Amino acid sequence: MSHLLLLDAAATAARLPYPALVREIASVLGDPGVRVPARLVQPLPGGGSLFVMPAHDARVAITKLITFTPGNAKAGRPTIQGDVVVFDVETGERRLVLDGPTVTARRTAAVSLLAAQRLAPNSAGPLLIVGAGTQGRSHLEAFAECLGIREVLIHSRSGASANALADLARRFGLRARVVGDPDAALAECPLVVTCTPANAVVLKALPRDDAFLAAVGAFTPAMVELGPALCRHCDLAGRIVVDTRDAEHEAGDLMQAGLDVAGYPALADVLATPDAAPRGPVLFKSCGWAGWDLAAARAALLN
């Protein structure tokens, strides 16, 4: 019988380096044995939600069981809590229990990173991060490590959080500054990540022609970070790519802009049929998928 490893946040992060995560995400998208049922999202009293997200390939089965409690942000508590349980398909044994928030943060940033590597017209930066929570930190880490950016601009409703993330960026050797107007910052940033609670529009201005925007905060039809005009501009003047086909009923930014989400390619399509460098701004809409958690489990088993 194999020994079950119960990993805390630090141990989980140590098993999920970004280059390995990117490789496994691409591998999962090309693996015909991967199966990902629709996730269960159960509303809870008080405005939270319980997520049950299973997936498997020929060797590994996982279930992510997490709660999402938006109200925790005001109280200084984590908004995402839970675990990812990893099973051996052949024996049915549990192999790992990974920290759910750490998996969510790192695999989401790795998906954005993979999309930027394949789609960004200009990956040199500066990078604009809107939202300075856990996802802001993970995207900063991933883009700094693997895209080689040298400068980051940060906006957050919380000045303390923005300054803390800027301090972290400086410890990474980056130039960093906090900005009060993210719309104005779009003019100087070809790389943009929005990772807010997605309860209101945070970007309305039109991006640069060589911009890559990863919008990761909104994952239900009611959630939104990007203004409708921005989304429609990317549709007309550039390109929109979604993370998976599930975005057809989850991408609140695009749905509220009146766009036909079903008509956009998914990341798997981009990897399978790479084409010439995109012209105009690229909007990558990420909603989340248990396949990304399966990729994280595969990476964790290798490290």
Brief sketch in words of this structure:
The chain has helices at 9-14, 18-29, 72-75, 100-119, 134-146, 159-171, 182-185, 228-237, 252-256, 267-272, 290-302; strands spanning 5-6, 40-43, 49-56, 60-68, 80-88, 94-99, 127-130, 151-155, 175-178, 191-194, 199-203, 212-215, 224-226, 239-242, 282-285. With 303 residues, the chain is α/β, with parallel strands linked by helices.
Description:
The chain has about 300 residues and is of the alpha/beta class. The chain folds into 2 domains: about 5-105 and about 290-300, 2-Layer Sandwich (ornithine cyclodeaminase, domain 1); about 110-290, NAD(P)-binding Rossmann-like Domain (Rossmann fold). About 35% of the residues lie in helices and about 25% in strands. It contains 11 helices and 15 strands. The chain has a 7-stranded parallel sheet with strand order 9-8-7-10-12-15-14, with helices on both faces. The chain has a 6-stranded mixed sheet with strand order 1-6-5-4-3-2. The protein has a two-stranded parallel sheet with strand order 11-13. Strand 2 and strand 3 form a beta hairpin. The longest helix is centred in the middle third of the chain and has 20 residues, at about 100-120. It is globular.
Which band does the percent of strand residues land in? Answer: 15-25%
Rounded mean pLDDT is 95
Please trace the helix and strand order, writing H or E for each element. Answer: EHHEEEHEEHEHEHEHEEEEHEHHEH
How widely separated are the two ends?
20 Å
Number of contiguous helices: 11
CATH homologous superfamily heading of the largest domain:
NAD(P)-binding Rossmann-like Domain
| Rg on CA atoms, Å | 18 Å
Question: What structural category arises from helix and sheet content?
Answer: alpha/beta
Helix content: 25-40%
State the major sheet.
7 strands, parallel
Shape: globular
Count up the domains: 2
DSSP E strands, number = 15
The CATH architecture name of the largest domain reads 3-Layer(aba) Sandwich
Low confidence ranges: none
CATH class of the largest domain: Alpha Beta
Topology-level CATH name of the largest domain:
Rossmann fold
Give the strand line-up of the largest sheet.
Answer: 9-8-7-10-12-15-14
